[in-house]
Amino acid sequence: MEKRRRIDIEKNRPKRVLALIASPRTLGNCEIFTKEISRRIPQPHTLKLIRLTSLSIGPCRACYGCVMGKACPVEDDMAFLLGEIANADAVIVASPVYYLGANAIIKNILDRGFLFFDVLERTYGKPAVLLDFFGIPDRIGMAPQMLETLAMFLGLSVKASLSIEAALPGESLMNKKNIALARRVGKIIFSARRLRKKKGCPFCGCEIVRVTPDGFICTVCHGSFTVNAGGSFVRKKDGGIIGPPEHMLLHREWLKGMKKRFQEKKKEILQIIIPYKDEGEWVEPDR
Ligand SMILES: Cc1cc2nc3c(=O)[nH]c(=O)nc-3n(C[C@H](O)[C@H](O)[C@H](O)COP(=O)(O)O)c2cc1C
């Protein structure tokens, strides 16, 4: 009875929408467009925002401690961030395009991705909307691909991945088309629908591919496909990176195996690397 009541309360509570704003600009496009989407979500919900550029996110030390079940030695805001993502019902990630990529904070977070394994069971399947804002047409570079990579390694279910032209703050909401887009995204975020890209990878939608003699390999999910005479994509093999948590956690097992392999080969490795130890001079700024 008590359990049933708790399930009912959980089902009836307002949904929690978390916005990860990767722009330092107050009331910039990332922030206002996200808030516009939130206004258009028909389900009762709360909106929490995190300005990612204000967080302290340190570089991964490549110690593999977290993979082996130890605490991460970097004391920063990663645990806070992952906790908030895990507690949300939907996530909106919004980044400006900076030098043909997403804001660098996205890559900083991605580089700590071994920590995602610990929350994957709770983040998997969560609806997500990815937004990037660019000032110059055709200069979005790899920004959408970076956001899609983040979503993939968190196991998020991408409802839409949109690139929106807007140079000045506020410009993203200066035309009716974009306001209609925000309305559409708000409507579908908690539905079974998604906005599909017409020309993206047939497995995950990413638009950046590696070209090989046998066809294309998606740079996010690593699925492979070709193009037929009619110009349609023909799926060859999914990349297998995307999958349910138990599948993605196999990567952690592989990493654990690499640590074991390192221990076994340590003597041989040291013989190779030690002779390079004193070569060159490291230069550091005066503090
Ligand atoms: C450092 C910097 C680099 C930028 N690089 C690009 C770029 O490579 N391509 C582009 O189209 N716009 C670029 N822009 C423009 C921003 O993407 C655009 O102004 C966006 O609307 C900013 O979003 P915000 O208002 O949420 O901060 C750059 C802006 C800055 C400040």
Structure description:
This protein is 33% helix and 21% strand. It is built from 9 helices and 10 strands. The strands form 2 sheets. Strands 1, 2, 3, 4, 5 and 6 form a 6-stranded mixed β-sheet that branches. Strands 7-8-9-10 form a 4-stranded antiparallel β-sheet, with no helix packed on it. Helix 2 crosses helix 7. The longest helix has 24 residues. It is globular and about 65 Å long. It binds flavin mononucleotide (FMN). Flavin mononucleotide (FMN) binds next to helix 2, strand 3 and strand 5.
Q: Give the count of helical stretches.
A: 9
CATH superfamily caption of one domain:
Flavodoxin domain
**Number of separate strands:** 10
Q: Approximately how much beta-strand content do the residues carry?
A: 15-25%
CATH class of one domain: Alpha Beta
Low-confidence stretches: none
* Largest sheet properties: 6 strands, mixed
Topology order in helix (H) and strand (E) letters: HEHEHEEHHEHEHEEEEHH
Bound molecules: flavin mononucleotide
At the third CATH level, what is the topology name of one domain?
Rossmann fold
CA-CA gap between termini: 64 Å
CATH architecture of one domain: 3-Layer(aba) Sandwich
> Overall mean pLDDT score?
95
Alpha-beta classification: alpha/beta
Query: What proportion of the residues is helical, as a percent range?
Result: 25-40%
Give the radius of gyration: 21 Å
